[in-house]
């Protein structure tokens, strides 16, 4: 038997050479905006080795080719899942939803009652618990929201999580994080241990695949953007570009919420002024 240069003769499976790691890191940077330092190499190596063993791929170049091959979308999505986490939960970082409830939504609901349009974006929404949380706070404040022009858009770069977000079905225990005041009746899921977000909240949310490092395809502007625990994967220049892109699609007075370990920086900070913990208001001159 010939041993491929990528097969570890000690039997641990696949090992990533420095060159292989560089190839993956530059692919991830170019296509997803992910910045991966060499400290990530052991993690990437162990995660990829499991996958490549399963698929009987022994030469790393063959794997790289598959990222541009006929099954590229699925392969890229799987790579992205290996390199990032989709962890999310209902009412994660709850202070943001207090600001949404107390400061952001009341004037927007008044605007919608007068016939105005309200748009909220959950960018990097993973499997959808963030946009459904926004919908649930909206419904608490305005049970009639269904009849108004208020929409919540959830997007993620990964088509697999976007599909899960659309399905709106989660393990029953995931709903334990919903505070009493916002508890909604669940619809039955496809299995007894799963449950579905109810129709009136689903109806307020639409979903799509969108890569934040590419130009945004929107015509209109947003009144609030949640982009939490996503920019953490980007380097500083990419973060600054993304903050600027958000600022451009936010209405004056619109809010941007970012993750607990993320910071506003660069030219956008001239306009996005702090309004609470990791919360910014767009104040263009
Ligand atoms: C940890 S989850 C955050 C989910 C949610 N925002 C929250 O805070 O609970 C990070 C998400 O960012 C997405 N992501 C990573 N890079 C992205 C990019 N370039 N464009 C859009 N989404 C991206 C991942 O697919 C993942 O679903």
TrEMBL record:
GO terms for biological process: methylation. CDD domains: AdoMet_MTases (cd02440). It catalyses: L-glutamyl-[protein] + S-adenosyl-L-methionine = [protein]-L-glutamate 5-O-methyl ester + S-adenosyl-L-homocysteine. GO terms for molecular function: protein-glutamate O-methyltransferase activity. Its EC number is 2.1.1.80. S-adenosyl-L-methionine binds at residues 86, 88, 92, 130, 156, 211-212, 228-229. Residues 14-285 form the CheR-type methyltransferase domain. Gene3D superfamilies: Chemotaxis receptor methyltransferase CheR, N-terminal domain, Vaccinia Virus protein VP39. InterPro entries: Bact_Chemotaxis_MeTrfase (IPR050903), Chemotaxis_MeTrfase_CheR (IPR026024), CheR_C (IPR022642), CheR_MeTrfase (IPR000780), CheR_N (IPR022641), CheR_N_sf (IPR036804), SAM-dependent_MTases_sf (IPR029063). It is an enzyme of class 2 (transferase). Keywords: Methyltransferase, S-adenosyl-L-methionine, Transferase. Methylation of the membrane-bound methyl-accepting chemotaxis proteins (MCP) to form gamma-glutamyl methyl ester residues in MCP. PANTHER family: CHEMOTAXIS PROTEIN METHYLTRANSFERASE. This is Chemotaxis protein methyltransferase. It comes from Tritonibacter multivorans. The lineage of its organism: Bacteria, Pseudomonadati, Pseudomonadota, Alphaproteobacteria, Rhodobacterales.
């Amino acid at each position: 038997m010939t041993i491929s240069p990528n097969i570890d003769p000690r039997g641990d499976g696949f090992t990533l050479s420095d060159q292989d790691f560089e190839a993956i890191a530059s692919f991830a940077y170019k296509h997803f905006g992910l910045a991966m330092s060499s400290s990530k190499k052991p993690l990437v190596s162990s995660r990829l080795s499991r996958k490549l063993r399963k698929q009987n791929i022994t030469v790393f170049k063959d794997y790289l080719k598959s990222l541009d091959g006929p099954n590229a979308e699925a392969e890229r999505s799987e790579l992205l899942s290996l390199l990032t986490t989709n962890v999310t939960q209902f009412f994660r970082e709850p202070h943001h939803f207090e600001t949404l409830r107390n400061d952001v939504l009341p004037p927007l609901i008044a605007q919608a009652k007068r016939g105005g349009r309200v748009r909220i974006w959950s960018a990097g929404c993973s499997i959808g618990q963030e946009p459904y949380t926004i919908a649930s706070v909206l419904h608490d404040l305005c049970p009639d929201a269904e009849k108004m022009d208020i929409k919540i858009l959830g997007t993620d770069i990964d088509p697999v999580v976007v599909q899960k977000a659309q399905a709106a079905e989660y393990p029953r225990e995931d709903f334990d994080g919903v505070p009493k005041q916002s508890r909604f009746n669940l619809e039955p899921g496809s299995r007894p241990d799963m449950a579905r977000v109810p129709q009136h909240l689903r109806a307020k949310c639409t979903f799509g695949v969108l890569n934040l490092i590419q130009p945004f395809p929107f015509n209109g502007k947003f009144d609030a953007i949640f982009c939490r625990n996503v920019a953490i994967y980007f380097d500083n220049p990419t973060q600054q570009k993304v903050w600027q892109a958000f600022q451009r699609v936010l209405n004056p007075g619109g809010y941007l919420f970012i993750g607990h370990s993320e910071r506003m920086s660069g030219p956008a900070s001239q306009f996005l002024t702090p309004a609470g913990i990791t919360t910014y208001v767009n104040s263009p001159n």
